[in-house]
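We modelled the chain as a single entity of 579 amino acids. Its sequence is:
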Amino acid sequence: HATTVLTCSSSACQLGGGRSSMGPTPCAVGDRHCTVRQDAEDRTPAVWVGPNDGKWIRVVDAEEVDPLAPRPCAPFAEVDESKEVIFAAIASFRDSLCATTLKGLFERARFPERIFVGVVQQNGPEDDDCLESYCALWYSKNSKKNESTKRHEGECPFSSQIAMKRFSAAEAKGPTWARAQDRDMIPESASFCLRTDSHMAFAEGWDVKQIRQWVSARNEFAVLSTYVADASQIVEGGVEVNVNGKWEVPHLCSIVWQDGHVRNMQAKAARNLKRPKLTTLWAAGLSFAKCHAERAAPYDPKTPYVFWGEEFARTARFFTHGYDIYTPDRTIIAHDYKHTQGDPSHFKWNGKGGPRLRQNATVRSQRDASDKRIWSLLGMPGGDPTMDLGDYGLGSVRTLDQLKHFTGIELSNRTILANRCGNVDWVPWDCKAAAAAAHAAHAASSSSSGQHPQEDPLQHANLQDQDDHLDPLPPPPDDKDDDDNNTRHHGESLLLLRGQQPQKKRNPGRTRRPAPDENVDDDPHPSFLPDPEEAPPPRSLLLPAALLAALGVCCWRLRLRTLARHRKRKTRLATSKVY
């Protein structure tokens, strides 16, 4: 029978008698600083904190030591993993692996009809379209055939569940700007939101497994996040690899300072976790939570060209809005590092073929303004404490001082106070009052309108049947904010979620490359066009309207030709950012 040797490292151990001549004495039950020396068969949950801070520390939750310790709010409603809708947000910059990621996402899901995807694509004129390449992949001889895909024979499976916003690669302004574009793509029916990259691998049944992980965190405001493991840890058939025989997973908990920003360091490791572990830092490569997290702390579109400051700014906003970051206990979604960071030919937004940040004065000016905005958010030197951040500021349930003590990061003078990779305690806030208020507001809205209200952000959507999401539904009302309206001027193309199809059917067997000056709009009925069922205008208005329409068409064609000539004079850049 294998045993675990726990070496004393705190006063709690002394209560157990200290060391004896027979060797190390196991620490007291309440000691949360025990160093674990594991043998090959040991299954003690532990986390690596570094060689100078105890090496492997036993994972012990506060409630295991003190039953009266404050605890997070448990999930507000029972979760039915077979009925929960998941929205996956993906930002892609000239990524040839985007289509493979989409295919794996649907092919490996247990309930693919419950998956909706929003892709923000930033491509060059010679790049393959992610959605069209995805459709072509389904017809390869190696495609998996299951019951859910058999119903889609003769068409592109699940394409009605994929929304696209298409931008020119020349318009790309970095990860925060790109990810902010999907805010209006989240369907009201979605319970959970996944944010990940465009070059990922998925374990078999990843959708159910992710939900189970979230449930096991026992926190309505849990956000599962980490720097994900390499795709080699998910092998053929979607089987997860047991790393080192102890189910080791990346654990994000330490930082360095980069260009004045908090930068996440390479992940440490946790092993033998029984459930997700509370941690201090968030990562953009994997984020899984209830969708009310994305609505409460959305990406800030006014931080173009930011890279290093992206993740900790979101950490602070999640924390002050009451959300808690957890390291997943299993690797269910993995990152293809070999064909991205490890491939010098892979396009990178901030690397090969990028916007030449240091040479472009306009870009530098916008990036400097973004830096100032983030430093203002975090109360750091270089920021403006009077800056109005609007919807993209901090929350009100926790403070920056609490964040400083929780993370061990002193923002005011850019120093690191303490190692927080071991056991950390949940920072209490009145989440029960927030839940009661949300449910009361939901009930009041329902009774006053006499109709079914929009989804309560703190309540699950109850869906009737998996087939409901295969039928077209009317588009949502056009109430986008100014930032969303601006995307039309970038020539973006939006395939509306919830079953909307483009008027033109694409050939699924061939990938088409758009012309440099092409402005494709996949919306079958854009919001700026009149409703076809509206009454026709009076005849007296038809002639002036026709003349204005003709003039508008002429001006638009002239603008397209001017843009085309302008593009031909510019040096063609072929690049992609690894998000």
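As a brief sanity check on the tokenised model: DSSP finds 14 helices and 22 strands in the chain. The radius of gyration is 26 Å.
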